[in-house]
Write a structure and sequence with these properties.
Layout lengths: L8 E7 L6 H9 L6 E7 L6 H11 L3 E5 L6 H10 L5 E4 L5 E2 L3 H12 L3 E9 L6 E5 L4 E2 L1 H4 L11 E3 H4 L10 H10 L5 E12 L5 H19 L4 H19 L3
Helix pairs in contact: 8-9
């Protein structure tokens, strides 16, 4: 008996109480011009109909797999559960209320192979809760080193693609801003991340106030500098100043 071929891309999606959005997210994956993928949705004990909706899609598309977390542990543990089950060479990250444009995987995989990127990322636009307003294009730098990423906000989770043949084994840290921690861990030992400046994704801005979200993110970044990356105080302050300025510029328009 011939074993089934491994998927080229494993899509890592944590979910929690997103019954309003998860269908659009899944359908944006199904609309990809690359069809050699698996979508691993790790549901973090949703109390709404999220898991039921995912199960319905999975019943008609074997590439979609629902992973039920035994207890609510947050996005880092949910992402790790999906990674533990991933079979693909590439890991793509897509949160459960965001969406991709149809050529996202095709364009980014070709770009990743051409640049031999352990980690790549793309431009994107923000959308509001009901997808009726689309913001300006959020452009990205051509490349980022570890030192540059410490001071930068450019790698949005829904745009990240990891080539495991180059990056090797990866693991989420159970920390706030676990995605930022992962990008840093990939680049820390000399890898360079490469940016594809094409509009390929839609990041959904939901009801939490902008001011509270900014303050929370700032606190998480400071925590990572001091307690995860163990940067000296002066370097942490220097990096934080640059990070905060870039974050302000990035968010000054929708």
């Amino acid at each position: 008996m011939i074993a089934p071929a491994m998927p080229l891309v494993s899509i890592i999606t944590p979910s929690w109480n997103v019954e309003r959005f998860i269908g659009e997210t899944i359908e944006s994956v199904q609309a990809q011009t690359v069809d050699d993928w698996e979508l691993l949705i790790a549901d973090d004990c949703s109390t709404d109909q999220t898991a039921t909706i995912v199960s319905r899609y999975a019943a008609s598309d074997a590439r979609i797999k629902l992973i039920r977390q035994p207890r609510n542990g947050g996005p880092a543990l949910a992402r790790q559960a999906a990674i533990d089950n991933a079979q693909g060479r590439f890991l793509a990250f897509l949160d459960s209320d965001d969406m991709w444009l149809p050529t996202k995987l095709e364009r980014q995989i070709a770009f990743s192979k051409k640049t031999r990127a352990a980690l790549s990322y793309t431009a994107f636009r923000r959308i509001n809760e009901d997808s009726s307003v689309t913001g300006r294009l959020i452009t990205v730098p051509a490349s980022l080193t570890y030192e540059q990423l410490l001071k930068n906000t450019s790698i949005a989770t829904l745009t990240a693609l990891v080539d495991r043949e180059i990056a090797g084994d990866i693991a989420m840290k159970n920390e706030p801003y676990d995605d930022f921690c992962l990008w840093l861990s990939i680049l820390k030992h000399g890898q360079i991340a490469h940016g594809l400046n094409e509009d390929l994704a839609r990041y959904r801005v939901r009801g939490v106030s902008v001011s509270s979200r900014r303050l929370r993110s700032a606190g998480w970044v400071w925590h990572i500098y001091r307690n995860v990356e163990h940067l000296p105080l002066i370097k942490s302050a220097w990096c934080f100043g640059h990070w905060a300025a870039r974050a302000w510029l990035k968010r000054r328009q929708f």
